[in-house]
Amino acid sequence: MNKRVLKILCAPEPAFLLPGIPPVVIGTSLGAKAAGELDLLTACLAVLSIMCINAGSNMLNDYFDHLSGNDWLNTNRTVFGGGSRYIQDGILSPEQMRSAGLTALISGALIGLVIVLISASPVILLMGIVGVLAGVLWTLPPFSICYRMPGEAYIFTVFGILPTAGAYYLQAGKFSPEITAPAVITGLLIAATALLNSIPDIEADRAAGKKTFPAVFGVKKAAAFYRCLIGLSYIIAIVSVSLECSFAGGAMFYLFVSPLGAACLISASEERLSKKGVNLPNALNIAHYVCMAAASAAGIAAG
């Protein structure tokens, strides 16, 4: 494979691609159960589309962080923060990063169009348009939502609720209240992931005028907010089990992951998060998020 192509393919880091998969997995699992069968083709296409959109958003974010000086100012480089540094390290030029990001977004949109043609659903078309626009508006000037305000609510809705509900609709052909609890849990956890990943970037974000939650409110409040998001996800799971709703099986299996959730809460202390070069809390968080999706999907299938 051409070395330049390989470098571009590696630009969207796996740690930033993984969060896009759980919403589709959970929505697909519950939707397939409601429909009585799994449409494997559209499920796989949905995963591929969301990964392309996330990759495009990630690479364009790197490009615009380069233009704003954010990534050049960032001295706290971690696996989960500070961008890919591909531009700063001379691996890709800014133009190559921009082109790669746009290509990924367009690819995600085209895959979404294939899904629309297969499903023949105007609802899926509308949700796809919203998803692509959301990925663009997150980073693209003059909108640059990630620079203008703490984006946890935006991420909760656009990268959590929307893909979970969309994946459910793609399988079931309808919306249902049963998707509410898993969609909210997924939204909370992806918002928590974005929040935690932005903590190492506080100094650079403040210098570049990027108004993330940690940059605006500091490490202490960010750590407390993170714990609240994780804790609330478990409260919703407990309520789902107690109400014996259709997600009860998935919620029960999610509760089995609670020891890992507790590890996330313990590791995300203000003291640890204030240190440079720390990766443990973020690694535990990603593991918890992925395990939540796997456990919930297994619980839905077994229920």
From TrEMBL:
Chain ranges passing through the membrane: 100-118, 124-141, 153-171, 183-202, 223-241, 247-266
Pathway the protein contributes to: Quinol/quinone metabolism; menaquinone biosynthesis
Pfam families (alphabetical): UbiA
Coiled-coil ranges from the UniProt annotation: none
Keywords: Cell membrane, Membrane, Menaquinone biosynthesis, Transferase, Transmembrane, Transmembrane helix
InterPro entries, per database record: UbiA_prenyltransferase (IPR000537), UbiA_sf (IPR044878), UBIAD1 (IPR026046)
GO cellular component, one term: membrane
Topology term for the membrane: Multi-pass membrane protein
Enzyme Commission number(s): 2.5.1.74
Gene Ontology BP term (one): vitamin K biosynthetic process
NCBIfam families xrefs: menA
Designated name of the protein: 1,4-dihydroxy-2-naphthoate octaprenyltransferase
